[in-house]
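Residues determine shape. We examine one folded chain.
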Amino acid sequence: MTTPSPAAPASDRELVLTRLIDAPREKVFKAWTTPELLVQWFTPKPWQTVRAEVDVRPGGASLVVMRGPDGTEFPNRGVYLEVVPNKRLVFTDAFTEAWKPSEKPFMTGVLTFDDEGGKTRYTARVLHWTVADREAHEKMGFHEGWGKATEQLAELIGAPKPTA
C-alpha cells in the first residue's frame, strides 16, 4: 500500500486540507492550543468563536463555541487523543470529557505541523465515522471554511496568506 500524499484522502471517510504557512511551526501550534488565540481565528468570518477552553494533553477536554451570523451558538466538545508539541495534535468529538461518550460522534481531527525550511506544512486530516458524515462536512463547506480559518490563523501570527 502506498502512503497518501499530504493532500490526498486515505479513504472515502476523510477530508484533507494542507497549506504552507510562512511561520515556524511553534507559532502555528500555539495558535491551535492557546484559547486567547483560538477565539481570534478559528471560525471563518462572519462566524465568531466566542469561547475556547482547552486542556491540551492526551485525555484533556476541549470546548469551542462558535456563533453564527444569526446569533445561534454551536458548542463543540471533544477530547485530545495525542499531543506532540509543535508536531501533531489529534482530537475527537467521540468523547465530550474524560472518556464520556458523545451522543453522536462525527469526526477525529489529525493535525500535523511539519517544518519546511522554517515554514510550516500544516495538514488537517479529518476522519469521519461514516461516508455520510464526510459528505455532510464537505457540504457544510469544509475546504472553504477550514481554508479561510487557516488564512485567519496565518494573519494572526503575522504570516502572509498560506499557499497550497
Summary: The radius of gyration is 15 Å. The chain is about 25% helix and 40% strand. Residues 1-5 have pLDDT under 50 and may be disordered.
